[in-house]
Amino acid sequence: MSKYLLDKFLYTVDRDPELVERYRDDPAGTVEWWETEMANSILGCHTGERSTWLAFTDDERDALVRQDHVALFGMGAHPFLTLTLFIAMFERDHGPLEYQIAYGQAMKHLDLPYPDIAT
Amino acid sequence: MATLAAVIASTHHPFYLKASTATGAERPPFADEWVSKIEAFRETLTRAEPDVLVMVGSDHFHQLWLDNMPQFLVGKAPHYDANWYNEEREFGLPRFRLDGDEELSSHILRGGLDRDFDLAFSNELRLDHSITCPIITLRPQADLPIVPVYTNIFAPPLPQPKRFVQLGKAIREMVESWESDKRVAIIGTGHLSLELGGPRQFGEHGPDPDFDRKAVEWIAAGDIEGCCGEVSLESLHLPGNATHGFMDFMLMMGAAGEGVKADYVDSLDLFHTMEAYFTWYPEGALR
Known about the structure:
The complex is a heterodimer of chains A (119) and B (287). Chain A is mainly α. Chain A has one domain (3-105). Chain A has helices spanning 3-14, 17-25, 27-37, 58-65, 69-74, 79-90, 98-105. Chain B has 287 residues and is an alpha/beta fold. Chain B has one domain: LigB-like (Protocatechuate 4,5-dioxygenase, Chain B, 3-Layer(aba) Sandwich), CATH 3.40.830.10. Chain B has nine helices and ten strands. Chain B has an eight-stranded mixed β-sheet with strand order 6-3-7-2-8-1-10-9, with helices on both faces. In chain B, strands 4-5 form a two-stranded antiparallel ribbon. The longest helix of chain B has 16 residues, at 31-46. At the A-B interface, helix 1, helix 6 and helix 7 of A face helix 3 of B.
């Protein structure tokens, strides 16, 4: 399991307006492209050097393809990253604060302690 | 030596700008009261007549990332660009630029290292809303040079709460030992109880009003001992999953001093979170 890689996906998509739209419109294609092209890029490094070992588990890939924020929370993805990206993708389809409230409601069955988000 | 003109601690609410400038049906019912509280709070900084601001905040995964995460970082640059695309998108925050005070940055970096804080530094730092929100609320003309100090309250493993208190105390000592005739205000922002991306988010109040009440009492009284006796990295999960931002308030309590009561205390209960505002004037600081 790679909480780090889930976070890296959410972080890199959230900061790029084109990727936000692409992930909204084509989740499966975006996740596949990202894992092939982006998962091993070292973000704080100049281009040309890459890591060699980062990949999603099947469950992680599936949660990202289904855009399932509850599953991502359960896996310990950083909740701030998930929330920010999902607001960017889906708030527009709802009335004021409707999406944010429903987002929390979908997790009402969860009790403390929440999954560990340490990477 | 420099004069510590004021110590100011505040929540940072990225929606203040949007709420305070909204008109007609878009304007939330609490906006007028919020603006009036912010304007009174702003006056507490204006009265201190600062020349330089030390600004304590926490990057929200903008420039600082998990492949190279500092626990405490001091900016040392002549200028700082501020706010990011996703803050513009979600909060309507404008991009702007602040000047830096590199001399004070150097002094704090050297002094911090010599006091056993292994501070990271950045010569090119783009700031986010943890620092621009208090600029918008407290100094909207954004005309003073700053020294940004970032803390990690966000990406575990985090430093212990007591370390935040110690750093706040050390920052104050360093400001007061800076060979300068300038007046410095130390401003830091954090959170009371807060939940982001979890089941308790966006409720009618903050996720834990009891914690908020206690937290305001600790800060207002400068009760570092009482606060440190109850707060731990583990306990901060209970009031809300983003409540570790309270440790930036603890840093500011360290800067204000043990047992030193705040000269100005105010709060505002909003949906999702409680706002809280505190100002201390060190003895003889006001002209």
